[in-house]
Specification:
alpha/beta, DNA polymerase, domain 1, about 15% strand, binds adenosine monophosphate, binds zinc ion, binds fe (iii) ion
């Protein structure tokens, strides 16, 4: 059987891995396909496609958008989006610019707590990609202000913690709609971080097509729970490692994988969506 890892980041957001490294790991680990799901960015897709030429690894164009409600953060994956669409790229550029302002605002809050870091310390970890909280955590770790990355989120920058600054993000409905408009298949990422299952019904009303059932943060029990919800609601069941390279410890590519058949289903669904929304 052939397999796909449907949730991988590159250094175009907050992974430490280049497109060449991502494809190298995917090939070494025997994957038939990887979905490139950078936060609010499609910049890694083309370099990954180039890096994959002749490798036998298929690159699935995707994205991971951040959505917020007043009391939770929701990540929305979009598979087989038309990443070449100008209007979509323009929208992402605006989100990326807002993320830079957000870093300045979070650094200001951290400094009020005497953590003494600068925005430049954070940007050094960002490289050419979308800047975000993992880079803030990495800067705090380097400066010796925390013992591990998790501590940064638990104490300071996790959702609703004292130094958290809301993203200029989508509502869940808005994230689903923009993915559909870009011809992509909206799938809610790692639903365990959202917690509220009843919100899945709400998202289905707005066009949600799938649930990321298998994920590094989902043990077997949690996966089974979301499998049941997916079956009950006729949703696609996807899965992936959410690899951030060394950004979150070890390279997870391929550690969570799904049969290639899921890729076929996503492709077919994207085709339907493109017919519906053109
Ligand atoms: P941002 O895009 O700036 O909101 O940051 C998102 C990044 O922070 C992703 O890599 C998330 O996995 C990571 N992240 C968010 N909350 C937590 C948390 N509580 N613990 C660990 N990582 C987190
Ligand atoms: Zn990330
Ligand atoms: Fe995520
Ligand atoms: Fe992710």
């Amino acid at each position: 059987m052939t397999y796909a890892d449907l949730h991988v980041h590159t250094f175009y957001s907050d992974s430490t891995l280049s497109p060449e490294e991502v494809i190298g790991y995917a090939k070494d680990r025997g994957l038939a396909a990887v979905a490139i799901c950078d936060h609010d960015s499609i910049d890694g897709i083309e370099p990954c496609i180039s890096a994959a030429a002749g490798s036998g690894v298929e690159v699935i164009p995707a994205i991971e958008l951040t959505a917020e409600t007043p009391d939770m953060e929701i990540h929305m994956l979009g598979y087989f989006i038309d990443w070449t669409a100008g209007w979509f790229r323009d929208r992402l550029k605006k989100l990326q610019a807002a993320r830079v302002d957000r870093i300045h605002a979070m650094v200001e809050k951290l400094n009020k707590l005497d953590l003494n870091i600068s925005a430049d310390d954070v940007f050094k970890f960002g490289g050419k990609g979308t800047i975000g909280r993992l880079h803030v955590a990495q800067a705090l770790l380097k400066a010796g202000k925390i013992k591990n990355l998790k501590e940064a989120f638990n104490k300071y920058i996790g959702f609703s913690k004292p130094c958290y600054v809301s993203e200029v993000a989508f509502t869940p409905k808005g994230a689903i709609e923009i993915i559909l408009k870009a011809g992509g298949v909206p799938v809610v990422a790692h639903p365990i971080t959202m917690g509220k299952d009843e919100f899945i019904d709400e998202m289905i009303k707005h066009g949600l097509r799938g649930i990321e059932v298998y994920h590094t943060d989902h043990g077997p029990k949690i996966s089974k729970h979301y499998e049941d919800i997916a079956v009950k609601n006729s949703l696609l069941m996807t899965g992936g490692s959410d690899c951030h390279g060394a950004g979150k410890g070890r390279v997870l590519i391929g550690m969570v994988r799904v049969p290639y058949d899921v890729v076929e289903k996503l492709k077919k669904e994207s085709g339907k969506i493109r017919n519906e929304y053109k």
